[in-house]
Amino acid sequence: MIDESHLVKTQELFDKCKTVVAGGESSYARLSSTRPIVMSHGKGTRFWDVDGNEYLDWCLGYGPMIFGHCPERINKAVVEQISERGSMYTFPHELDYEVGRKIVAAVPSVHLVRFCNSGTEATMAAMRLARAYTGKDKILKFEGGYHGWSDANALAYHPPIDNAGPECAPWPVRFHAGIPRVQEECLVIATYNDFEGVERLVRENAGELAGILAEPIMANSGVIPPLPGWNEHLRKLCDEHGILLIFDEVITGFRMALGGAQELYGVNADITTWGKALGGGFPCAAAFGGRKDVMDLETRNEVFHGGTYSANPPVLAAMNAALDIFMNEGDTVYPHIKGIADALCKGLREVFAEAGVDAQVQQVNGMWQVFFCHQPVTRFRQGRVNDGEFYDHFQREMQARGVYFHNYQMERWFASTEHTMADVELTLTLAREAVAAVKAKLGRVTVSAH
């Protein structure tokens, strides 16, 4: 067990950070409900805090580190690029072609790409491109879907249910302060996996809709898989009404399969965005791409997209190395990741069942989340009413035992190429201890949502 009272260096350094960094860190998702983790270093499936405590990591930087911490092949490619060829060109270079051709080869719906610096940027560019191509202003997105922190789409992310409107037509609740109300005029909010609801909203707004923006697997509200036929339904609606289908594959791209969730479900988007795993753990790796006729607006400079650091050589070197692994070793990479996830999810279900705890371990390939409730979660609002208190205590007990996954139930667990069955067994052993401790602390099992 990690003794939180002995985390002296962690607290000292976090307090120092807060004197110069607003809030002590630069992304609110990193804040812990129990205590901060101030990291020292990471390697493979482990990381260490500044007090020397070791953690088995199932969060992996929210998904980018598909090859674990400090992956040698990615690091080597970046170091060689920086030391031998430079870090900034501001001109096209060979890696533009190499990375671009590999993405196009991997994702059948994509004919041309552009590079950018974050998933937020990629999604903003995709929305602008859809509007330019169709001449329409509105984008339909789904309640609970997170597509970056920009004003353009930061509505109806995780709104309070008692102030979010009817589930059949959710209100465009602003994510945080500082977002202009005018943004509400640009978005139509629908409910994920609600076939009738989305069809009705598309019909009502078709004359103004430029695109449907969706995660092909909802992965920003825990893990909510699409119901059978859901992605096909979105594709059909877009085709019928002259709307572009934008798939946000920032989380799922190159992680679910070489061709992402589009390959998994056999549904092609008109525009796709990527990030996270595309860089193999290297930051600022993102891109968007799509059909040639759509992307040709970028070719002709009819819609503006740019950035000083877009397509910078170190990031493309990391992307290039990651894509080589995905493309050349995918026959072992993807089955390994899925096998680890399958074993851990199966074991977690058994742990919760043995303890008499209502839990839904929802998984797609190498990504999963636990909802403490009675029935499978198919919509965002179901996930919001699961037993969050039980989840919080479970995460704290696991973190105290040196197993880390994010403390927010709307995040996810991830497997990497570096995880082993020994990691799975260790996690399950400690999960049994943690569940027993939570039951004793709360004096109950979960409160089921029906």
Polypeptide structure, described:
By secondary structure, the chain is an alpha/beta fold. The chain has 2 domains: 4-69 and 331-442, Aspartate Aminotransferase, domain 1, CATH 3.90.1150.10; 72-327, Aspartate Aminotransferase, domain 2, CATH 3.40.640.10. Helix content is 39%, strand content 14%. The protein is built from 12 helices and 14 strands. It has a 7-stranded mixed β-sheet with strand order 4-10-9-8-7-5-6, sandwiched between helices. Strands 1-2-3-13 form a 4-stranded mixed β-sheet. Strand 8 (244-249), helix 7 and strand 9 (271-274) form a beta-alpha-beta unit. Helix 3 runs parallel beside helix 9 (313-354) and helix 11 packs across helix 12 (421-442). It is globular and about 60 Å long. The two termini are 35 Å apart. The model has no long low-confidence stretch (mean pLDDT 93).
